[in-house]
Amino acid sequence: MFSRFFSRVGLLAAPFLAIIMGGCSKAEMTVRQSTLDPKGPVAQAQFDLFMQTVWLVVVLFVLVGGMLVYAVIKFRARPGDENKPAIVEDGHGNPLIEIGLITASIGSLVIIAIPTLTAIWYTDDVPAESVPTSKLSAWYPRVEGTRENYAKTVEEEVLVVDVIGKQWWFRFEYPQLGLTNDAKHSVPNELVIPKGVAVRINLRSEDVIHSFWVPKLAGKVDLMPGRKNHMWLQASETGHYYGQCAEFCGDSHAYMLFRVEVLEPAEFAKWVQKQKSDAAPVVAGSAADKGKALFAAKGCVMCHNVGGHFGAGAFGPDLTHLASRKSLAGAWLDNRDLAAQRALERKNDNTESSVEVDPATLKANLIKWIGSSGTSHDANGKPTKDVKPGNRMHNYKMFNVVGLSPLMTAKIDAEKVSLAAAQADAAKALAVAATKSAAEIETIKKQEDAKVAVAKQNLEVAIKGFTAEELDDLAEYLLTLK
Ligand code: CUA
Question: From the alpha carbon of 208, which atom of ligand 1 is closest?
Fold first, then answer.
């Protein structure tokens, strides 16, 4: 009897067990955005709290479930029970058990509350004991020789990073190091930090609520307009980490990613110096040189800064070192050779090791992103979903969002009229030529087709803002920004 009961339970439980066991394999635990694979003290504290809660719940589950199973078996209906008299008198229960259960519940809550509050306090801001391990003196540039007078408070000894959330990308600024947007040296989408150094993160938003989350390092805390939130993190291993906006913030929320690159402190110092350097000059007359002229002519320069080349843009991501970044478009497009990357991850059995940027992939990404991203358009000028739906870059002049720019809409309409006229002309010319020889008809057809092709291309440029050659030149220019 019992064995039959348990075999039934076993049949029911098998799929659940399979899911749980499958979900706990090492490969599943160490995916790019796994909170179960902590690589820093804050993520570790959060993971520990999670496990404490899980174990307490497992104990409760076994206790309550065990009693339930016991009662189900012990008091189950047996053959002949239907002839027994029904229970007429119902008791009021056992006061001792009731009080015991209430006390046990309160006890469980207190057991969970103590580590929860401890973890909340720990993760709120850089604790004093984390600072001596940060070895900031290795790279920390003391301003104006005031080191002696520098107040050695926790606040001033940690690396401070201001994170600014925008629809839909993150800007990182390092006020202590002079890497700020005002100084034309901000860092978009890839937060670079030294290994073993406590980093205080100030979270600000310029538009709506976003949330900063690097599952393997720490998270998540919201970036709220008009509110100053903060958190801290520290990475115990070098590598390439994956982050994500974790609060719905509009069309492209799901595409609002970022990366964290953890370097050895000496490498970090080099990186800081590089961020402060200007872009190299481009070779006169090269494709990159043409692309640079287009960058100004098409209006890219209005939003994007390129140190040493252009300096007006402060609204969009700083592009001075664009080609050295492993991702593009809010970290949505990966600039690495993905096959090589996967092979490396498998070889090292982690997702933090990373191959370098692959120029061919980067170029393809640039063309894809600039040529058709955001609200791009089909042949009829109708908005279509693309790389990052709703992306603002395409709200601006050269990208012609229909309805936003009447001038560009008028241009698209005019080109459509021209195309229709060219097609009508072609049909008419062929009708007139119907009586001529086959060779003559072929010549006329070729001439008319060429005119129609030009009209089509004009319409396409009106819609997209760039010809294929222009896009290629622009990509060549951006590739020089290492
Ligand atoms: Cu920003 Cu979701």
Answer: 1
